[in-house]
Amino acid sequence: MAIHQEARAPRATRQAARSPIRSPDPDHRPDEHTFQLLVDAVVDYAIYLISPDGRVQSWNRGAERIKGYRADQIIGQPISVFYTPEDAAAGRPAHNLRAAIEHGHFTEQAWRVRKDGTRFWADIVLTPLRDEQGALTGFAKVTRDLTERRASEEHERQLAVEREARSAAEGALRARERFLSIASHELRTPVASLQLAIDAILIRRERGTLDTQRLDDLLHRMERATARMRTLLGELLDVSRLSDGERNLEVEQVELAELVGDVADRFAEVGRPGRIATRLEPVAIDVDASRIDQVVCNLIENALKYSSDADTVDITLSKTDDGAVIEVTDAGRGLDMGGVDLFQPFGRGANVNDTQGMGLGLFIAHQIVHRHGGTITAANRATGAGATFRVFLPQRPTPQSAG
Predict the structure, then answer these.
(1) Along the chain (403 residues), what's the average pLDDT of each consecutive run of 10 residues?
(2) 173: CB partners within 8 A, 6+ apart
């Protein structure tokens, strides 16, 4: 039988199979027996022939070592005995032979079964063989056992997963410690103010020196302290709800200029006249009004916090082809991130350590905007001091973001 196509064995094996045994006669080529001796000497690869109907026709030492069958036990048997029961039931043996005929060869890595029933991870090359007239005479198959290498790779992957999980756990622990540190620091101030006011009332009442004016002053101090604590606790609750995806959006069509203008008016009532300037273009889009109100509040509060009373905060609203853009610009100290993500919990710039806050307002704004399918970005102003926060909101939230 003349064989015109050889198996796609690994390079070293293919080279050995193609290289003639040297002899004084340069025209001399090894006979079939010599070639069979060469194939049989290979122990790291199972190399054997398969009949056109899928039965084992030859067997080398590598096949015996890898699969566990002696030649007299396996020659004549169907190749389906090497497949897992599920692959055999699914018709994989016949499918692979057909694929080799159709494409000129077939390769795969899959589980195979040894004589004792154990499985090994095999790298397989299957090549059809034809005679001089092109008629199919069978197949050549080369199989390599990659079980140990696969186990090593799986072990490395598992180690990588464990390293990633450990890194995430350590990051979560650092975030928790930072949260406790920042939260305790931020809450300590209003609690201390509240306690001092209460102590002052009790002492003055005991001494009989608690006049109405002094009582009003202390009550106002207590009111400011409780308001501060209420704001901090509200932010923490919002972070928890948003992170857990607890609250769905309650979407309705909103005239965004009215909403943004109303938020700006609320801040203008308690600040310097003219400190907040607005330029609002009418635009109606579908949003959760209360949540976008919260976004605008957080951005204005952030701008006021990091700029002086003499600076103006500019708020613009403009319509786009697919939604709306809100920009809040201040003339404050600008952004100096130092590698910190502003929109992550407790993300605060490197130049704001002297300003109260837990760095949650922008994170909350980011989460709300993201759930609307929008984007929020921050950048220093191109000219002069200060920063601009830009929010894009689509015409309507996508089902994924709204859910």
Answers:
(1) 42 40 46 65 86 95 94 95 96 96 95 95 95 94 93 91 88 71 67 84 85 86 82 70 64 94 85 86 93 90 84 93 94 69 60 54 86 91 82 83 50
(2) none
Domains 11-145 and 252-402 share a fold: no
CB atoms within 10 A of CB 299: 26
CA nearest to 64, candidates 50, 52, 47: 47
pLDDT of residue 403: 47
Q: Which of 325, 317, 296, 295 is nearest to 394 (CA)?
A: 325
The residues near 159 (Cβ < 8 Å, ≥ 6 apart) are none
Give this prediction's pTM: 0.47
Quote the tokens at residue 122: 């095999």
CA distance 10 to 395: 59
How many angstroms separate the CA atoms of 299 and 291, rounded?
13
Helix H or strand E segment including 379:
strand 375-380
Q: Which residue has the tokens 């005929």?
A: 101
Name which CATH class applies to 154-243: mainly alpha
DSSP three-state, residue 127: strand
Q: Domain 252-402 is of which CATH architecture? A: 2-Layer Sandwich (3.30)
Pick the CATH number of 11-145 from 3.30.450.20, 3.10.180.10, 3.50.50.60, 1.20.82.10: 3.30.450.20
- H/E stretch holding 186 reads helix 147-207
8 A C-beta contact, residue 79 and residue 50: yes
Rounded CA-CA distance 7/100 in Å is: 11
CA-to-CA distance for 388 and 315, rounded, in angstroms?
10
Tokens of 35: 């070639």
pLDDT of 211:
86
State both tokens at 245.
């995806």
Show me where the domains of the chain are located. Answer: 11-145, 154-243, 252-402
pLDDT of residue 40: 67
Q: How far is CA 331 from the centre of its chain?
A: 36
